[in-house]
Design goal:
The complex is a heterodimer of chains A (94) and B (200).
Chain A: H1 3-34, H2 38-60, H3 68-93
Helix pairs in contact in A: 1-2, 2-3
Chain B: H1 14-17, H2 23-49, H3 62-87, H4 91-121, H5 130-161, H6 168-197
The chains are: A mainly alpha (94), B mainly alpha (200).
Chain lengths: 94, 200
Amino acid sequence: MTAPERATRTGRLNWAVWTVLVAATLLSLTLSAEFGDPRLKVVAVVVVAAFKVGLIMWRFMEVGRCGRAVQLAFLSWPVVLVAIVLGVYFTEIA
Amino acid sequence: MDMLSITREVPAPRDMARSPAEPGVWLLVWAELAVFMVLFAAFLTVWSKHPTAFAAAADTSLVIGTVNTVALLTSSALVATAVQAARQGKVSEARRYVTATAALGVGFLLLKSIEYWTELANGLTPATNPFWMYYYAITGLHATHVLMGLGALTFAYRCLSGPAAHSARSLQHLESSAVYWHMVDLLWIVIFPLVYLAPR
C-alpha cells in the first residue's frame, strides 16, 4: 500500500470511528431513557462511556504507538473507572 | 545457498516507531486523568450520602449535553485528521482542520455558558445542594481544560504557520496539542453520562 493510499485509509477509519462514537452516544441516551431499573441504566451508560474512552485512546490518541508502560497506564483508566463507578454505586447507592 | 540471495527484513522507518507527542505531555495527561478520577469518586461518594439531592440531575439540559458531546467527538476526529495531514506534509490542510477543531471547542464553551446562564437564572447555584456544587465543580474544571486545549491548538496553529511549519518539531507540537485535546474530549464522554444521565 502506498503512502497516499494509507493516508486515505486512515482518514476514512477516523470518520468510521467517529460514526461509532456518535452511535454509542445515541445508544447511551436511548438506554438511559428506556431502562426502568436505575441499576441497569447506570451499568449501561458507564460501560458505553468506558468503551468510547478506550476507542478514543486507541484510535485518536494513538496509544497503541506508545510503549507498553504508557499503554498500560492509559488503557487501564477506563477499566478502573468502571470498577470505581459500579463498585461505589452497587455498594453505597443502589 | 548463495550468500547474495539472503534477504534481510527492512526495519520500520524510525518515524513510524516513535510515540506521537512529547513524553511530558503523556505524563501531564495521565496526571489530569488521575485528578478527574478522584473527582468522579468524590461525586459518587457524595451521591451515596445525598441521594435525593442528586435527583436534581433531571434539571440538567440533555439537549445541550448531547450537542456538546457530538461537538467534542467531531473535534477529536478533526484534530486526528489534522495530524494525519501534517504527517503527509499537507500543512495548510492541517491548519484548516485545527481551525475547525478550535471552532467546535469555542462552540462547546458558548453552549456551556448558555447552560450555566439558564441554570443560574433558575436559581440553581453551587449553594443549592451537593449535586449542583459537584455539577459546577466538575463541569467548570472541564471547561477550564477546554480553554487550555484551545490555547494548545492556537500554539499548534502558529507552529504550522511559521517558517518551520514543515519541521518534525512542528508536527510534534501538533501531536501534543491533539493528545491534550483528545483528553478534553474523553473526560466529557465520562462527565456527560455520570453527571447528566446516571443520577437522573
